[in-house]
Every structure is written in C-alpha cells, then in structure tokens.
Design a protein that fits this description.
Elements (H helix, E strand, L loop, with lengths): L2 E4 L5 E5 L4 E2 L6 E2 L6 H13 L16 E4 L4 E5 L4 E3 L3 E4 L11 E4 L4 E5 L5 E5 L9 E8 L5 E9 L2 E7 L3 E2 L14 E2 L2 E4 L25 E2 L2 E2 L22 E3 L5 E6 L6 E6 L4 E7 L5 E8 L2 E4 L32 E3 L2 E3 L1 E2 L7 E2 L23 E6 L10 E4 L5 E3 L6 E5 L5 E3 L6 E13 L8 E6 L2 E3 L6 E5 L9 E7 L2
C-alpha cells in the first residue's frame, strides 16, 4: 500500500508507491518494502544533522527548510521562494529582493550597511562616505573665542569642510589646532562657505560658490543694494518710474516714449521723432532675426510681400472691420446681394444663397428658369395608391385609393416610377406614376427587344397580348422569372 506523505500544515506533499524512492525533496522518501532502505534513512538523518551543509543549496527545498551555506559560513532558511540568511545581513553588490522590513543588506561594492524600510526601499545605516575619506553632513561641537561650545553641521566632502551651518554667529577659537577648521574663522548665522573670512569682508576668496538663481541679495560686488540708484533718482523699491514726459532713445532723441498730456492725459505714445518708420523685429523658432512689419505714415506695412500673417490657425482675431477688402479670402460668412448680405445653405431656406451639399446637389423650393436637360427619363404625376407598390408596377384606376395594380382586363394608366425627370403634383400624397418616357417595368417571361408589353397580373406585365398595352421593350432577357425591363411607355 502506497505511503501518502503530508506536510506539517496537513497538506499532501507526495505519494510514495511500494518498492520505490521519491526524490522530489532534499530527502529521499522510501516506499514500503524497498530493499536497502537502511542506508537511505541513515543518510537522511545525516543531512538533517548537518543542515544539508554544502556550497550549493539543496534540491527540492520545502518552505522552512534549513541549509548551512558552508561557502559563506551562513545558516539560511527557505521562505518558499529563496534561501535567506537567518541572522546578520544579506551580502551582495546589488539590492537583494524578498527581504522584509528591518532586514539588513551589506553592499560589498561600497562597504555600506542598509536596512529595508516599510516602503520596500533601503535606508543607509553607514558609513556615510564611500571609500577612505568622509563625505557627509557631520554634526559637531566647536569652541568659540569665549570658550563656549557651539553645535554646528559641517558639510564635508573628501574630509574637507565645504560649508558650515550654524544657528548663531561666533568666532572659532583657533588657539587650539584640534578645534580649528581649515578655511573658517567667523561662522555666520545661517550658512558660511569655506574661505569666507572676516578679512575678505564676506567675499569668498576661493572658487567655492552658490550656483543657481537667487531671488534677492543684500549686496552686489560688496556694495549694499540700497546704495544703487539710477540717474534722476528713479525709484528701485517697486517699479522703475518715469514722468509723463517719458524717455528717449538715440543721440538725436529719435524715439520717444511718453504719456500724451493733451486730451485725457493717459494715452501712451511711441513716437519716431526723426525717421519715417518704426520697425519691429523678432527671432523665429530657428533663431533667425526677422522683421515682419513696420509702421509708417501710410499705415501698417509688411516688410516683404506675401510672407507674414495676421493671426494663425490657433490664434485668430475675433472681428476685423474695413471699408473694403482687397485680396483673396478663403472663407466668408455672408455674400452681398444688392444691399443685403445672404449666408449660404445646402437646404432650401428663404433668403439664403443655394450651396451644393456633400453630394454636389443644390436644393430649392421652386426653380424659375429654363432647363435645357433632365437627368431622368420619364414624365410622372403623383396619385394615391391602395398600398405601397415597388418600382415598375403597372397601375390602373381602381381600388380603395385613386389607383391599384393593373391586371389583364385593366386599362393601364402608367408605371410606378423610380426617379422621374419631371414630377407633377410633387407636393401631393401618393406614389409617382410614370406616364410618358422610358421607365423600368416588372415583366415575367422571355422578352425580346421591341416586344409589346401588356398588363397581366398584380401589376406584373407579360409579352402575352392582353387588354392594355403598357409599352415597348427596349432590351431583351431570357430570364423566365420576374425582372425589370426598360420600356417606352405607350399608355
């Protein structure tokens, strides 16, 4: 009888048949009546006793299994995915995976210790620097010239202090060499750069600098900001102000910018007092300086013909007003008709200009004029029918309405038309019945070109002679079933 091997949690691991050995795990599981099982059992005990001591992890591990990695002299356990170190830190050159919060990792490439945080990232424990020198923000105490200990933060790179952060200003006691800090004598409240000594009046003598954009400065070139002024005593505390008289540019005061004091007294003016043009230049997207237009006595003039635009596809002027427009317009809202302005419409709307639709057609309620040709071939008139009949049905007077489908004894008045060239009573109810011209007719049986076509049954015609002649066939067909045959009407 086979052995069913269960896990500690009650789950089934494997079934070992009689007389066999299962090797799916790190131990050999012996089936019933297997000869020589004693050696296998003893070896299993030895493997357990030595925790599978080997440089290579055991095959087929189970979750919770212990392995002694004798290459690293580390005891490890299998977490269901990988073997992990039971104590100390994971050792690798890259960030390990599968650790939990609080686990350690020793980075062998930089000789630094990290701990994994709750977000799955790693926090550096130390040392702060990489290599043999110190590169870190170092908290330290230093004595001032009054023998008072001061707490500071030293910004250190390769053992050299680049800056000091302090909450108070003091002078370092330099009488003790172990207390001195190279490049510093007075530490200012805030941040002090290296080699910014009192002898240099706050100017850093070495190449150490703050690089970037400052929103403000107390001094420029060592001179206080309050000491700068513009000729004429312009006010720098807010904006640069000029009197209404404005300012001029050019040796001959060629360009004047001022406020016109006449009239309302608040109109800004740009005035070329000498030349006849004011030119405007700007760089293109390619960095080339271009001159789109200039202003002269005649108005606003482009620098070159047919080169520059007013507005573009994204930014349009709302309205432009002019007495006349000379040039080519790609769009227009209305067209002048006499003294009125009419918009275009594809529908037959009153007081609009007829415009072709997407199919190229023009619609109108009434067309007054002479037509020299027609697209379709028959003359038709609308009559009411006792039901809706398909195109080509021969019709006669009768039924519950004005007309009904013709039969052999009927007097045919016409055929249901598809698209008449001229339709009388077009606004009336009913179907268009072709009276003259050429129309498709419903016909059964073989037809020869030139055969007379007669009304026969339920509006379907035949070449068999009957009471009412419908028309003459303009085409032939060997098809015995019903089809449409184009005919000249003879009703």
């Amino acid at each position: 009888m086979a052995y069913v091997i269960n896990l500690t949690n009650g789950g089934s691991l494997v079934t070992v048949e009689d007389g066999t050995i299962d090797q799916s795990t790190s131990l050999k599981l012996v089936g019933k009546n297997y000869a020589g099982y004693g050696e296998i059992q003893n070896e299993n005990f030895i493997h357990l006793l030595e925790n599978f001591s080997s440089a290579n992890q055991p095959a087929g591990p189970l979750s919770g299994q212990i392995w002694f990695d004798n290459s690293l002299k580390k005891l490890k356990f299998y977490d269901g995915t990988k073997f992990r170190t039971t104590g100390g830190a994971e050792i690798s050159t890259t960030q390990p995976v599968g650790l939990t919060t609080g686990d350690f990792w020793w980075d062998t490439s930089n000789n630094q210790l990290y701990a994994q945080n709750s977000d799955g990232g790693f926090v550096l424990i130390g040392p702060q620097s990489i290599g043999e020198t110190v590169s870190a923000m170092v908290t330290a105490q230093v004595r001032d010239s009054n023998q008072v200990n001061r707490t500071i933060i030293k910004g250190t790179v390769d053992d050299g202090v680049v800056f000091i952060v302090s909450n108070a200003e003091f002078t370092i006691d330099t009488t003790d060499a172990s207390n001195a800090i190279t490049g510093f004598d007075i530490v200012r409240q805030g941040l002090t750069l290296r080699n910014t000594t009192s002898a240099a009046s706050g100017v850093t003598s070495s190449a150490h600098r703050f690089h970037g954009t400052a929103t403000n400065a107390e001094k420029l070139g060592g001179v206080a900001a309050a000491d700068y002024a513009l000729a004429g005593a312009a006010n720098f505390s807010s904006v640069v102000r000029f009197a209404d008289a404005g300012f001029t540019v050019g040796a001959a005061n060629d360009l004047a910018v001022f406020i016109d004091e006449t009239g309302s007294g608040n109109e800004g003016v740009i005035d070329n007092t000498v030349g006849q043009k004011i030119r405007f230049k700007v760089k293109s997207s390619g960095g080339v300086t271009t001159e789109p237009f200039h202003i002269q006595s005649g108005g606003l003039i482009p620098t070159t013909t047919a080169t520059y635009d007013i507005g573009d596809s994204n930014y349009k002027w709302r309205n432009m007003y002019a007495t006349s427009f000379n040039g080519l317009a790609t769009q227009a809202i209305a067209l002048q008709v006499g003294s009125n302005y009419r918009t275009g419409d594809v529908n037959p709307t009153n007081n609009t200009v007829a415009v072709r639709d997407s199919s190229g057609n023009i619609s109108a309620n009434v067309f007054n004029g002479v037509s020299t040709s027609a697209r379709y071939a028959d003359l038709a008139e609308k009559y009411t029918t006792d039901q809706e009949y398909p195109v080509g049905t021969a019709m006669c007077v009768g039924g519950e309405a004005e007309t009904t489908a013709a039969k052999t004894s009927s007097h045919c008045i016409g055929v249901i038309s598809t698209e008449p060239a001229y339709l009388m009573n077009s606004e009336a109810e009913g179907q268009a019945i072709g009276l003259k011209g050429r129309v498709p007719v419903r016909v059964k049986g073989i037809v020869a070109k030139g055969d007379p076509i007669y009304a026969w049954e339920d509006g379907v015609c035949s070449t068999v002679a009957a009471t009412s002649l419908v028309g003459i066939a303009l085409e032939a067909s060997d098809d015995e079933s019903e089809k449409l045959i184009e005919c000249v009407l003879k009703v």
